Amino acid sequence: MKVLHKKEANYRLSDYVDGIEDILVIVTADEKPIAVLMPVEDIDLETLSLGTNSQFVEMIERSRRRDETEGRVSSEAVRQMFEE
Length: 84
What we know:
The protein is α+β, with helices and mostly antiparallel strands. The chain folds into two domains: 1-39, 3-Layer(aba) Sandwich (YefM-like fold); 41-84, no CATH class. It contains four helices and three strands. It has helices at 13-17, 45-51, 54-70, 75-83; strands spanning 2-5, 25-29, 32-37. It has a three-stranded mixed β-sheet with strand order 1-2-3, with no helix packed on it. Helix 1 links the parallel strand 1 and strand 2. The N and C termini lie far apart (57 Å).
């Protein structure tokens, strides 16, 4: 992991990307992280976008909690609901 203050981040973006094969580059302001560059492999843009969207992640977590407390409806049960 490499941490640098945003005022120190004066290289071109491509210069940072070239050196992040297996590390994170974290940019900070007032000692708080504000951005991160990280390597990604074998992932599509949609998955990356949704996986970093806090509202989407919370929706998935709510769904998982509901599954644990209320159980799931099987796909066969859903089919039967629509056949009637």
